[in-house]
Design brief:
The structure is a homodimer of 119-residue chains.
Chain A: H1 3-24, H2 30-39, H3 46-58, E1 62-69, E2 72-80, H4 82-116
Antiparallel strand pairs in A: 1-2
Helix pairs in contact in A: 1-4
Chain A binds a DNA duplex (30 and 30 nucleotides) through residues 5, 8-9, 11-12, 15, 29-31, 44-48, 50-55, 69-76.
DNA sequence: ATATAGTACCTTGCATAGCAAAGTACCTTT
DNA sequence: AAAGGTACTTTGCTATGCAAGGTACTATAT
């Protein structure tokens, strides 16, 4: 039970959400996504990303096409399907609700501490 | 791949954090926590909470004492240990960072959409 | 031509942790 | 003593992140 593990756990639930977000902006392939997410300080690695993309594709939320590259092997460029867009919207609602709930909990704790130790 | 499952996944990472928060306010037992979290719209059930409390206790973040009840079986009242307080602070930093990262991602998508469809 | 390096995608095996459901134990009320 | 409520526990399942290793294609250097 270390803080690194706790950070991993927190990240878990939102990876799918963040990846759908990045794809929603336009066609991207895996390395684009890794770069985008890393620059937003959301740590992801290949072993997480590829299986996740496959799951999302199989669930009908994503589609992809192969595109030749001028500097290496071909790439899978992903886009959201209509279902994927709906799903992303639903996830965003969930996230905003959750973030608000946590905000409430933090605030309530702060108030409890203020009451215990009035300045 | 349904939205309910996505909600569960998002919740996962923050349950520990929210539970430590509730305990940080003062001695509580499991039913108190369930009530607190439910009222904050963080859904938790017994099968999740009890094993989690045991894990946190074994990790040295929590301590408890048995207290007789006037209306049923005895209860385990939990408090944070010093280590638990430090851990909670670290988790809060992690949470705030994460929430900020997600906010950035959402904002960036909104901007991308604005650019595509200028009013 | 062949070897090396770089890029891109995929797979395997493991560990963590939420959850539904069933179980145990204690207390109060009738 | 039987029934019902409260509280804590356990079992089996599932989902999913991740480290590590693997496959395959392309470009460059020799």
């Amino acid at each position: 039970m270390n803080i690194e593990n706790a950070q991993v756990q927190m990240r878990k639930g939102i990876l799918e959400f963040c990846i759908l977000h990045v794809i929603s902006r336009g066609e991207v392939y895996a390395s684009d996504m890794l770069e985008e997410l890393t620059s937003a300080r959301i740590m992801v690695v290949e072993g997480t990303l590829y299986p996740l993309l496959t799951r999302l594709k199989n669930a009908g939320l994503l589609d992809y096409k192969w595109v030749e590259s001028s500097s290496g092997p071909p790439r899978k460029y992903y886009v959201l399907t209509d279902n994927g867009k709906l799903f992303l919207d639903a996830m965003q609602d969930t996230w905003l609700d959750l973030a608000d709930s946590v905000k409430t909990i933090i605030k309530k704790t702060d108030e409890a501490i203020q009451t215990q130790k009035p300045s």
